[in-house]
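Q: What would this complex look like in 3D?
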Amino acid sequence: MAVMTYRDALNAALREEMVRDPDVFLMGEEVAEYDGAYKVSKGLLDEFGEQRVVDSPISELGFAGLGVGAAMAGLRPVIEFMTFNFAFLALDQVINNAAKLHYMSEGQFRVPIVFRGPTGAALQLSAQHSQACETYYTHAPGCKVVTPGTPADAKGLLKASIRDDDPVAFMEGELLYNLKGEVPDDDDFIIPLGVADLKREGSDISIITHGKMIHVALQAAAKLEKDGIEADVLDLRTIRPLDMDAILTTVAKTNRVVYVEEGWPYAGTGAQIVSMIQEEAFDHLDAPIRRVMQADIPMPYAKNLENLAKPNADRVVEACNQVLYR
Amino acid sequence: MAETKTKKRPTKKDILKAYGVTPEVALELMRQMLLFRRFEEKAEEGYAIGKIGGFCHLHIGQEGAAAGSIAALRVDDYVISGYRSHTQAIAKGVEPNAIMAELYGRADGASGGKGGSMHIFGADVNFMGGHGIVGGQVPLATGYGWKIKYRGEDSVVVCFMGDAAVNQGAFHESLNMAAVWDLPVIYVVEHNEYGMGTAFNRVSTTDMEEKSGPHGITGVSVDGQDVLATYALFTELVADVRSGSGPKFVNLETYRFRGHSMSDPVSGTYRSTEEVERYKKEEDPIRVLKEKLFSVGVLDQEKLQEMDAEARKIAADAADFAEASPLPDPKQLYANVWAEVNPHGRLFFDGRSRD
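A: Here is my prediction, written as C-alpha cells for the whole assembly.
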C-alpha cells in the first residue's frame, strides 16, 4: 500500500498498463508535452515516447473516432477528453460506432477503448463546463460506464477498463484529482467492472451513490450518526454494468433508500436505479425512495447560485430524514 | 500639437493616409486598446484576490485584434466569439461595468451572474457571446448570416475564434455552408500561435491562410498587432460583405501575453519566456500604435497619459461597480431555463422549492 493522490493513481494505472501491453496508447488534447490539462499523464511522454503519448488537435470527433478505428483494428487506445464537457462533439463516434459495432457485426469486431477524463462540476466553471455527463453514456447499450470516487478505485478500475474488451467511458471527478488515499501497488491490482463497494456500514438507511458524490454521502452519514442514525453508503463504482445484487442486499437490510447523483434528475441514471429497486424489491421498502440531484437547471456561474444548484450533505440529510419519517 | 519638421519622418497625412485612417479614428483605437489593457489587468487583479472564479481568459497582447476589427462595424452588425472575449464585448458596446460584474458573479452582470467570464452576452448591442466550447460558436455565426440573408438585411457577422478551432469539424462545415449559400459572415481566426499549450504547427501541416480555400473562400492575413492595418482591412472587408460578396476568412495574426487562462502558466515547455518577452517588447499593439502616432505628431506623451488615466479610471470604476453589486437573488436560480412556462405539464424535477 502506498498513499497517493487520485491523479497519481490514474497515472500509475496508465503507466503500468502501457508497460504491460505495447498496444495501449494515450491520445488527447495536451496529454503529452503539457502533461495533461490536469496533469494525469505527467511523465508518460518521456517514458513512452511520442508514438504512444500523442497530442491531438482540438478535434474531439476526429480523435475519438480514430481511437474507435484503432481499437477495431486491435490496438487498445486510451482517449483522454480534456473534460467530458468537450466529449459531446464526439458522442456520435462513441454511441453510433464504439457502442454498436460489436452488436452490428454480430461479434466480428471488438472495440476495446477507454474514453476518460473529468466530469461533473468543479468550481464556478458555469454551464458549458460544469455538468455530470454519465447518463449520456449509461443510456446506450454497448457502452460501460465507470465512475471511481477514491484513489484506489481509480487505479483498480482504470486498469480493468483498459483490459476490458468493450468501450468504457471512464469518468473522473475534476475535484478529486488531489484527493489522497491508500492504493495497492500490485501491478495486477484490478477492480472488476460491475462490483459495488460498501463504503460505510449501517442498518437504518441506504445511501446509494457513485463517483465524487460518495464523499457527500459519507459527510451526510457522519452527520446522521450524531443523531443516532446509521447509514449504509453504497458506492456503485460502475453504473453500467450495475451491481444490482449489492443494491438489493442493502435495500433488504435497511428498507429505506436515498439515492445521490451529481447529474440532472430527469431521466438520469438514478431514475433507472430507483425504478429497478421498486420493480425488484418493492416489498422491502418502508418509504418512497428519494433522490438528491443537481437542480434541474444549467449550472450557474455565481457562487451562491452554484451552491444552491449542487447536491450537498445537508440536502442528503434532509432527504434521509424524510425517508425515515423524522 | 506641433507638426514635426524633420524630413525623414513621414507626415501625419502620409502614414495615416496609407492606412486610410483619420487621426480621430486612430486616437479612438488607442483609447479602446488602453481600456482593454487596463480592464483585463483589473480582471487579473480580481482573479488574484478571489473576486473572480472559474476559468478566466485574458486578451492582453491581443487588443489590436479586437479594436481594429470591431471598430469597422456598424451597431447593427453582429459579433460572436469564444471564451477570450471580454474586450470584444466592450468593443461591441457592452458596458465595462456589466462585464466586470459578470466576472464577479453579481446580479448586475451582463448575464445576471449566470454566465461568468466565458459567457458574456449583450443582445441589445448584437454581441452574441461568449462561448465555452472550442469552435462551438462558428455554426451560430453561420446561423446569423443565414438570418440576415433570409430577411434581406444588410448587416454583417464577425465570428471570432482561436487558431485551434480550425481543426474542429464545426469550422469546416460552417465555412462550406456559408460559401454554398453566400452568407454575410467574416470568419476571423485570432491566430495567437498556441491553442492552450500546443503550437499551431504541431497540429496543422498547412498555413492558416489556406484553411478556407478548400471551401471556396479566399483567406487573407493581417498583422493584428498593427491596429491600423487591422482596421483598414476590416473596413474594406465589411464593405465588400455588406455589398453581397459572400463570406470571408481572416487570419488575424496576434499573440497572447498571458497564459491560456488564469490557471495556466505564461510560458513553459510550449513557449519560452524569452519569446514572450520579445513579443511584449516588439509587438505590443499599444506600443506599435503609440510609436506611429508619436512619429506623426497625432499623439504625445502627455496626451497618452491622459488617455491612459481615463482608461484606468473606467476599469477601476468597473471593479468598484462589480464589488458594490449584490449577489444574484436565489430566486433567480430557476429563472430563464425556459422562455415560456406553460400552464400544463411539469417542467422541473428535482424536488427543490422554487419560491
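A: To summarize the key features: Chain A has a mean pLDDT of 97. Chain A has twelve helices and 14 strands.
Q: Very helpful, thank you.
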